[in-house]
Design goal:
It contains 2 helices and 3 strands, in the order E-H-E-H-E. With 82 residues, it is an alpha+beta fold. The protein has one domain.
């Protein structure tokens, strides 16, 4: 079976107020995202971490700024291709 895919980048961290912290925030966030996509016939498939290297510009490089690595989380959804 052939599939088509849709990706959604999610925040590196979910910000909550301490007094409102319940311990399920990450699961709740992902659950709401999956349900939104499911309404459009997308099936949750997986979550990946993608590393991105950010090279400094010319001037920053001259002053010794190093390459930075950022990690992003991407949720993949799929559905059968028609």
């Amino acid at each position: 079976m052939k599939y088509e895919y849709q990706m959604a980048q999610i925040p590196q961290a979910i910000v909550v107020k301490e007094k409102e912290y319940q311990g399920r925030e990450a699961a709740h966030y992902l659950e709401e995202l999956a349900n939104r996509f499911a309404e459009k016939d997308w099936e949750f498939w997986r979550v990946d971490t993608i590393g991105v290297l950010i090279k400094p510009g010319c001037l920053a490089g001259l002053f010794g700024k190093a390459i930075e690595e950022q990690h992003y989380y991407v949720v993949t959804f799929r559905r059968p291709k028609e």
